[in-house]
C-alpha cells in the first residue's frame, strides 16, 4: 500500500486560494455585508467538514467551494445562494443541524438547505426510492427555485469529478443525470450546463462512442476552423460597415447532440453536417434588439442562401424556458448547410445562464414563459399523486417538449407543448372546462377531443354538463396538467365506487361466515393480487369478484400467507445474495455461479459490451448494455437494484445481435453479404429482411456472434464488399 503523505500547510494555502477565487466570482453581485455572510458560511463549512476527504483524497471543502463558484459564475446566483451552496452538505454529513443554520443564517437559508438535504428512504421493493427523492426535490421547486439551481451546480461538480468513484456508482449517477438533471437544466434555460451534463453522462454510460466522436472531432479541427473563418469574414465586414457592434464566431456542438443525430438518422459521423453553429452576438440597447437581429439576418441571407424551412424566430415569441434567438440554416460556400444563431448580449446571457439571468432583465410586470412554467409546476405538484414513478414520467415529458401557440376565441395566446390536443387546451384554460369537454371547434371546424393542434390554431371548447373524465383520455393528452387532473378525477370516481363495494363485500362475507376485519381484507387483496384494498372493493362493486370467487378464497386460505411472505422477501433476498463479497461482480458466462440471469432483449448485449445487471421483481437478473435506451431510467430510479456485471471469456457461446446494412443495390449483393457471414465467418443468421427502393438497398440481419471483437471483425469484412455504404449495429429485433 502506498503511504499517503499530506502536506497540511500546502493544503490550507490551496483552500484559501480557492476561497479567494470564489469571492472574485461573486464580486458583481456583492452588496454591503454580503462578504461577511459568505465568510461566515465558509468558516462553518470549513470547520464542520475539516476531517472529511473526497474519494480522490482531496479535502472535502473543495467541493462546496466549487459548487458555490458554479452557482455564482455559471448560473449567476446571488449571496443567499452562495451561502447555501457552501453549506449544502453540512446538515446531511456533519453534526450541524438545521436549527444551527437557522440561528446563524436565518429562516430563508435554513429552508433552502432543508430542500437540499436528501431524505433517507426505507427499503421498499415495490417503490423507487430515487423517484420519491426526485419528487421531494421537485416539490422544493414550487417553494424556491434556488434549491434546484444549487442542486444542479452540485450535480455538475460531482459529474466533473467522478473518476474516483466505483463503476456502479458512476453508472447510477450518470443515469440520473441524463434522466432528470439534464432535462431540468434544459427546462430552466441553462443550455451550457445542460450540454455539459449530457456530455459527461455519456462519457460514463457509453465511453467508447464518446471517445470515438471526440477523436473524430479533434482530427478535423484545423480544417473546420479554416472553414469557419472563411465563412464568417464577409459577415463581419458588412456588419461593421452598417455600424452593428457584434461578435461573430463558430461554436462546436456537443458530443452528445452529434451522437443523438447519428442515432436518430442512422448516419455515420461523416454525414452529420452541423458539427458547429455560427453565432452572432449583437451588442445593442434593449429597444433596438429586434430590429438589429433582423438586420443581421438580412446580411447573412444576402451572402448565403437560406433554407426556408429552417427559420426559427424565438425573438418575437420566446421559448417557454425563456430562450430568445433567431436561427436560420444557410448554404455555405462549399455546398453544405450551416446553422446561424443571431441574438443580443442580453439574450445570450439568458441562453447560457437561464433562470437567474432572466430575472435580472425581467421587467417588473411581464409574465414570461418561465414564470408560467413555474406556476404550472406548482399546480401539478399541488395535486397529490400516489405513485411517484407515474408523476415523474408525466413531469419529465413536459421538460423537453417544444411548444406551440394557440389562440382562444377572444384572441388570448396560450402556450402548449408540441402534439397537444384540443382536450389539453381545455384543461389548460380551466380544469372544469377540461372535465366537461365533449369536443372543440378548431378554426371554426368541429373536431374530436383527441384532435392534435397546430401552431396558430384558434380553439373554442364545447362542453356538456353530463360529461365526466374517461380512462381513454389519458392515451392522448400530453400535458402534465391534463394528465394529473384526469387521473385525480378517475381516482375520485373509483373511490366512490369502492365505497359501495365495501358495503357489498361486508354483506357477502357475512353470508360466508368470514369475519370482516383488516386482516381478512388484506388476505383477500393479496389473494386476488390487487395492489390495494380499494381495488378489491372496486372490483366487488363492478361484479368482477362474486360469491364464487370468495369461496375459492376460503378453500385456499392456507397458501395465502406463504405467498405474501415470498413476494416481499424476494427482492431483498436477491439483493442480499449479490451483496455478499463473492458476488460483488456478477460474472456472465460462468455457470459455476448459481444466480439466475438473462440477457435483456431490449438491447441484446454480447460479450465485450459494457454491461450491468438489474434485479427484476419476477424475472431474476436481467443484463443490459450500459448504453441501452432503457438503462438510464432503470438506473436512475432503482439504483439499489443494480449489480456490477462482467463477461468471462467463453468462446463457444453465441449471442444475438442485429446489423443494419445500407448500400447501392447490385445484382448478387445479398449473396455476397450472406457468403461473408455464413461461409467466411461461419456465423448463424437468424433472420434477414431486405428492401430495395430506387436502387438503394437496405437490410436488417439478426446474427449470432461470440463477442464484440468477433462482431467488429465481421463488420470490417462486410464493409469491403463493393456497393455497401454503411453498416450499423442496432439494439433490438423489434
Ligand atoms: Mn454536494
Number of structural domains: 6
Strand order of the largest sheet: 1-2-5-4-3
Beta-strand proportion: 15-25%
End-to-end C-alpha gap: 51 Å
Ligands, deduplicated: manganese (II) ion
CATH superfamily of the largest domain: Hypothetical protein af1432
**Unreliable stretches covering 5 or more consecutive residues:** 119-125, 558-568
CATH architecture of the largest domain: Orthogonal Bundle
What is the molecular shape? globular
Give the integer mean of the pLDDT values.
82
Highest-level CATH class of the largest domain: Mainly Alpha
Summed up, the helix count is 29
Sketch the major β-sheet: 5 strands, mixed
Q: Residue share in helices? A: 40-55%
- Decide which structural class fits the backbone: alpha+beta
- Based on CA atoms alone, the radius of gyration comes out at 30 Å
- Tally the beta strands: 19
CATH topology annotation of the largest domain: Hypothetical protein af1432
In short:
The chain has 734 residues and is of the alpha+beta class. It has 29 helices and 19 strands.
Describe the 3D structure.
- There is one protein chain.
- This protein is an alpha+beta fold.
- The protein has six domains: 2-205, Hypothetical protein af1432, CATH 1.10.3210; 218-365, 2-Layer Sandwich (Beta Polymerase, domain 2); 369-488, Ubiquitin-like (UB roll) (Roll), CATH 3.10.20; 489-577, no CATH class; 581-647, no CATH class; 655-730, 2-Layer Sandwich (Alpha-Beta Plaits).
- Helix content is 51%, strand content 16%.
- The chain has a five-stranded mixed β-sheet with strand order 1-2-5-4-3. Strands 11-15-13-14-12 form a five-stranded mixed β-sheet.
- A hairpin with a 5-residue loop joins β13 and β14.
- Mean pLDDT is 82; it is low at 119-125 and 558-568.
- Bound molecules: manganese (II) ion (MN).
- Manganese (II) ion is lined by residues 63, 88-89, 154.
- Pathway: Purine metabolism.
- GO terms for molecular function: kinase activity.
- This is GTP pyrophosphokinase.
Amino acid at each position: 500500500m502506498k503511504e499517503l503523505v499530506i502536506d497540511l500547510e500546502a493544503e490550507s494555502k490551496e483552500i484559501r486560494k480557492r476561497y479567494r477565487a470564489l469571492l472574485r466570482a461573486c464580486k458583481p453581485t456583492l452588496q454591503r455585508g454580503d462578504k461577511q455572510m459568505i465568510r461566515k458560511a465558509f468558516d462553518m463549512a470549513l470547520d464542520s467538514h475539516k476531517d472529511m476527504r473526497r474519494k480522490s483524497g482531496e479535502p472535502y471543502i473543495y467541493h462546496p467551494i466549487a459548487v458555490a463558484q458554479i452557482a455564482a459564475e455559471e448560473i449567476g446566483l446571488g449571496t443567499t445562494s452562495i451561502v447555501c451552496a457552501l453549506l449544502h452538505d453540512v446538515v446531511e454529513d456533519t453534526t450541524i443541524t438545521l436549527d444551527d443554520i437557522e440561528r446563524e443564517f436565518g429562516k430563508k437559508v435554513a429552508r433552502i438547505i432543508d430542500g437540499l438535504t436528501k431524505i433517507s428512504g426505507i427499503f421498499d421493493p415495490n417503490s423507487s426510492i430515487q423517484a420519491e427523492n426526485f419528487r421531494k426535490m421537485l416539490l422544493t421547486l414550487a417553494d424556491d427555485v434556488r434549491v434546484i439551481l444549487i442542486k444542479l451546480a452540485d450535480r455538475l461538480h460531482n459529474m466533473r469529478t467522478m473518476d474516483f468513484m466505483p463503476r456502479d456508482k458512476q453508472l447510477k449517477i450518470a443515469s440520473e443525470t441524463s434522466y432528470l438533471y439534464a432535462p431540468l437544466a434544459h427546462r430552466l434555460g441553462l443550455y451550457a450546463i445542460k450540454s455539459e451534463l449530457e456530455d459527461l453522462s455519456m462519457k460514463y454510460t457509453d465511453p467508447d462512442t464518446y471517445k470515438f466522436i471526440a477523436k473524430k472531432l479533434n482530427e478535423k479541427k484545423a480544417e473546420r476552423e479554416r472553414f469557419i473563418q472563411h465563412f464568417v469574414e464577409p459577415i463581419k465586414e458588412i456588419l461593421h460597415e452598417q455600424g452593428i457592434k457584434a461578435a461573430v464566431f463558430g461554436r462546436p456542438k456537443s458530443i452528445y447532440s452529434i451522437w443523438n443525430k447519428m442515432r436518430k438518422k442512422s448516419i455515420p459521423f461523416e454525414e452529420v453536417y452541423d458539427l458547429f453553429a455560427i453565432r452572432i452576438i449583437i451588442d445593442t440597447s434593449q429597444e433596438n434588439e429586434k430590429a438589429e437581429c433582423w438586420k443581421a439576418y438580412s446580411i447573412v441571407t444576402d451572402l448565403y442562401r437560406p433554407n426556408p424551412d429552417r427559420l426559427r424566430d424565438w425573438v418575437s415569441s420566446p421559448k417557454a424556458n425563456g430562450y430568445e434567438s433567431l436561427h436560420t440554416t444557410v448554404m455555405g460556400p462549399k455546398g453544405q448547410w450551416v446553422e446561424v444563431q443571431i441574438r443580443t448580449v442580453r439574450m445570450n446571457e439568458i441562453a447560457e445562464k437561464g433562470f437567474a439571468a432572466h430575472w435580472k432583465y425581467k421587467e417588473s410586470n411581464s409574465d414570461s414563459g418561465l414564470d408560467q412554467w413555474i406556476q404550472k409546476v406548482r399546480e401539478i405538484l399541488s395535486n397529490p399523486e400516489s405513485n411517484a414513478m407515474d408523476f415523474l414520467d408525466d413531469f419529465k415529458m413536459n421538460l423537453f417538449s417544444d411548444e406551440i401557440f394557440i389562440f382562444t376565441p377572444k384572441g388570448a395566446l396560450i402556450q402548449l407543448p408540441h402534439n397537444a390536443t384540443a382536450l389539453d387546451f381545455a384543461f389548460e384554460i380551466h380544469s372544469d372546462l377540461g372535465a366537461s369537454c365533449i369536443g372543440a371547434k378548431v378554426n371554426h371546424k368541429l373536431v374530436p377531443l383527441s384532435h392534435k393542434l397546430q401552431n396558430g390554431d384558434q380553439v373554442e371548447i364545447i362542453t356538456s354538463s353530463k360529461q365526466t373524465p374517461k380512462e381513454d383520455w389519458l392515451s392522448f393528452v400530453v400535458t402534465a396538467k391534463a394528465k394529473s387532473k384526469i387521473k385525480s378525477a378517475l381516482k375520485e370516481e373509483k373511490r366512490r365506487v369502492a365505497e359501495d363495494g365495501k358495503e357489498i363485500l361486508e354483506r357477502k362475507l357475512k353470508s360466508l361466515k368470514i369475519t370482516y376485519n383488516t386482516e381478512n381484507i388484506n388476505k383477500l387483496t393479496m389473494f386476488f393480487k390487487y395492489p390495494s384494498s380499494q381495488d378489491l372493493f372496486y372490483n366487488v362493486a363492478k361484479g368482477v369478484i362474486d360469491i364464487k370467487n370468495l369461496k375459492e378464497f376460503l378453500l385456499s386460505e392456507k397458501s395465502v400467507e406463504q405467498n405474501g411472505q415470498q413476494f416481499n422477501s424476494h427482492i431483498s433476498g436477491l439483493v442480499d445474495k449479490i451483496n455478499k463479497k463473492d458476488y460483488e461482480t456478477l460474472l456472465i458466462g460462468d455457470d459455476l455461479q448459481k444466480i439466475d440471469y438473462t440477457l435483456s432483449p431490449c438491447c441484446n448485449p454480447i460479450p465485450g459490451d459494457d454491461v450491468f445487471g438489474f434485479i427484476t421483481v419476477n424475472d431474476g437478473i436481467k443484463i443490459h448494455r450500459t448504453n441501452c435506451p432503457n438503462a438510464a431510467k432503470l438506473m436512475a430510479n432503482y439504483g439499489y437494484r443494480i449489480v456490477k456485471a462482467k463477461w468471462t471469456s467463453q468462446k463457444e457461446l453465441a449471442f444475438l445481435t442485429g446489423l443494419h446494412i445500407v448500400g447501392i443495390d447490385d445484382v448478387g449483393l445479398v449473396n455476397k453479404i450472406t457468403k461473408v457471414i455464413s461461409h467466411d465467418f461461419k456465423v448463424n443468421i437468424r433472420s434477414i429482411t431486405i428492401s430495395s427502393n430506387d436502387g438503394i438497398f437496405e437490410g436488417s440481419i439478426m446474427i449470432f456472434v461470440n463477442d464484440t471483437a468477433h462482431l467488429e471483425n465481421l463488420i470490417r469484412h462486410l464493409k469491403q464488399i463493393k456497393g455497401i455504404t454503411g453498416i450499423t449495429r442496432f439494439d433490438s429485433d423489434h
